[in-house]
Amino acid sequence: MSLASPAPLARPALPDAQTVTAVTHWTDRLFSFRVTRPPSLRFRSGEFVMIGLLDDRGRPLLRAYSIASPSWDGELEFYSIKVPDGPLTSRLQHIRPGDQLILRPKPVGTLVLDALRPGRRLFLFATGTGIAPFASLLRDPETWERFEEVVLMHTCPRLADLEYGRLLVEGLADDPLIGEMMAGRLRYYPTTTQEPSARTGRITDNLVSGRVFADLAMAPIDPARDRAMVCGSLAFNLDMKAILEGCGLREGANSDPAEYVVEKAFVG
Ligand code: A2P
User: Which of 124, 132, 160, 186 is least surrounded by CB atoms within 10 angstroms?
Assistant: First the structure.
């Protein structure tokens, strides 16, 4: 009598699994990665989805991540902080091409063009990984159709933290879809708070002091023509809300568009 070898134990299929296609480590605190896109996923630039991994007990451990890639891209890109003892990012930072992660294909969020009334200038205010939704919006032709000028302001502790955004901005001019239409219409104002650079200080302080407007030879924020999107830490968002409301802008939503929208940059 021959003994049949036991059938291999089937590994439980990962729910909503997508495959990692590329990983870039920008600093010891920041990385970006690309994953396959579920064919059914439609999203508006600026929205986020839940992504994650299975924990040690096989349960999904998910966090909200803004989609950094434009809506026409065949893959999805994300930009993340690495939190050393963060339940998700302490593990997510080790992903490699070919690995699988969970991606729930239900995009949501308030940082969308539809939540803003028509205007002439669009201000994008970010700290740290809060630039991710703007990386999507800046590559969306609709942004450039709706606004004459876009002003991107990004504050990070160190110069290396700005690199993801700097390269994004640099690449826009060569973008086949929007390169020509956005030429000369983007103002980029990066600042560092912990390392000396060409522009230092929190963007909030530089707005209140008026330095930003002097540096860019630009008129101050005016609710009649200016719209704004804010994405950063909770404290940053609160400070920005106060500044924008002080300028006369009101917070908008999908159901009730107004002059500015805000979302927390999610930390894993
Ligand atoms: P600071 O160094 O003065 O705290 P990260 O998300 O990578 O930690 O970066 C946060 C960046 O945002 C830092 O440069 C930090 O400046 C800045 N920041 C933090 N809180 C605020 C705030 N309330 N207003 C403006 N900038 C802020």
Answer: 160
Mean pLDDT of the chain: 94
Does a structural domain hold residue 178? yes
| Ligand 1 neighbourhood includes 46 CB (under 6 angstroms) | no
Instruction: Assess whether the C-beta atom of 69 lies below 6 angstroms from ligand 1.
Output: no
d(CA 75, CA 63): 19
- Statement to judge: residues 88 and 169 lie in one domain: no
Q: How far is the CA of 44 from the centre of ligand 1 (A)?
A: 27
Looking at the structure, tell me whether residues 98 and 122 fall in a common domain: no
- 236 CB near ligand 1 (under 6 Å): yes
**What atom in ligand 1 is closest to the CA of residue 30?**
7
- Asked if residues 209 and 202 have their Cβ atoms less than 8 Å apart, the reply is no
**Residues 16-29: tens digit of each pLDDT:** 999 999 999 999 99
Q: Tell which of 89, 108, 127 closes a domain.
A: 108
Render pLDDT for 184-241 as a digit per residue (tens, 0 to 9): 999 999 999 999 999 999 999 999 999 999 999 999 999 999 999 999 999 999 999 9
101 within some domain: yes
Judge contact between 67 and 50, C-beta under 8 A: no
What is the distance between the alpha carbons of residues 240 and 207, in angstroms, rounded to a whole number?
A: 9
Cα 124 to averaged position of ligand 1 atoms, centre (Å): 15
Q: The tokens of 57 are what?
A: 């007990």
